[in-house]
Amino acid sequence: MVLKAGNILINSIADTSCPICLTTQCRAYYQDKRDYLFCPICSLVFVPKHQLLSANQEKAVYDLHENSIVDKGYQRFLERLSIPLCKRLKPNSLGLDFGSGPTPTLSFMLENAGHTVNIYDPFYAPNNSVFDHKYDFIVATEVVEHLHHPGDELDLLWSCLKPGGTLGIMTKRVIDQQAFSNWHYKNDQTHVCFFSLETFQWLGKRWGAQLSAPENDVVFFQKV
What we know:
The chain has 224 residues and is α/β, with parallel strands linked by helices. It has helices spanning 13-16, 55-62, 72-88, 106-112, 150-159, 177-181, 197-207; strands at 27-31, 35-38, 45-46, 94-98, 116-120, 135-141, 161-170, 193-194, 210-215, 218-222.
């Protein structure tokens, strides 16, 4: 099957440069209502900058989310990260829930497990002072696919970890172009960065981190 790549309109080199490794060598990957580019250096698939939603458009979508702190199904979904994370943590660890959303649930679960958790969300908890602290763990569940500047934002999180600390990320991963063409995950207009295991391996090497993947959609980076 030949996948559509289309003729992607390049407004500028910066418009289509990789938002993680900044290479300008990115190439067409797929096209439907949006264009998707592939980075040959870090394997990120991403939407070019000129097709990103505005902050107001993004928030309008997030305001429609109905995740609830008492929703047992949502808690079971988050347990894919929280259970293996808690096995790694010392008692009374300090953490940050990055991209906590309008109803912080993962932080609630981790606090019930005996930890202290600060929250940050650019729309619902925009408290930049949380980045003045150092953490035993940082979690980002269903967040990194929304980031417009993932290289900068992930580097910031990494800098906020203590030695030995853990960065836990949960997001669905790119497999290949064939799977991508039928992937529902790409159809959310707020999803603009799509990570593969190779992307996480590239980040791990850049940070000098120990990488593990306890679940298909979960990765942990441990700071040495």
